[in-house]
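Now for our target.
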Amino acid sequence: MSTKLQLVEKDEKLYLPEKATIKKVEAFTEKEKFFTLELANGKPLGHMPGQFVQVSVLGIGEAPISISSPPSKESSFDLCVRAVGDVTNKIHTLKVGDTVHIRGPFGHGFDADILKKMKGKHLLFIAGGLGYVPLRSLLNKVLEEKDTYKKISILYGCKTPKERMYKDELAKIGKLGGNVELLETVDHADQEWQGNQGVITTLIPKVELDPKDTIAVIVGPPVMYKFVLISLMDREIPHDQIYMSLERRMKCGVGKCGHCQMDGIYVCQEGPVFNYADVSKKEEVL
């Protein structure tokens, strides 16, 4: 643990925010807005799928936000912001041309070793609610090279149809066909919803899979993980073939404040992406 903290201390850039300009704003739901930002220095963000940035508004504060776009050589990147506090509520008032400041990217995402392990496998993505946002970074990267995977199954669940995000993208993914399948569900349907109704675990039995050849990725609210993991165990998927994103109580992003510490794990540095085999015995993590 001390080695990781020393490495962070040597990289002064992690403490120095970069200015970023808002290039696009789109309202997804009553609480969520989509933003495309561009770094003023003209350099790419340099992130891995699953990482996050610290977004600050001068005079108000800073908040950790998941990166929702795949890695790119461009200086722009995407964020989806839920208005839940002073910083995020202020961000929701910003318009195209306004600026914020960015620190990061931070955290352990889906690195080269994990991506290599995924090649040629059946990828089972399971996203609940806002969990689709950090998953989108990996998902779009994978879809760009979909023919290098055996199969890509995307399961997405929300409380209501109105809470679905990236609706246009979901529609396109649903029409890809081939080795890509999209299954959606909502807890509470309205009169217009024609899809599945029920919690997200009701979708898992609908997927045909070979457990030895399947890698599962789970992203969503903490309450979801326990039940999804039980369902994956029922399908006999090995622990070391399950990855989870556990973004909890993060504050500083560099392992200093301790807000995200669980059972001796600093989520902001050792996560947010974890292999289930590494944390299955840690009660506080799950």
User: Anything to note?
Assistant: The two ends are 20 Å apart (CA to CA). DSSP finds eight helices and 15 strands in the chain. Residues 256 and 264 are 13 Å apart (CA to CA).
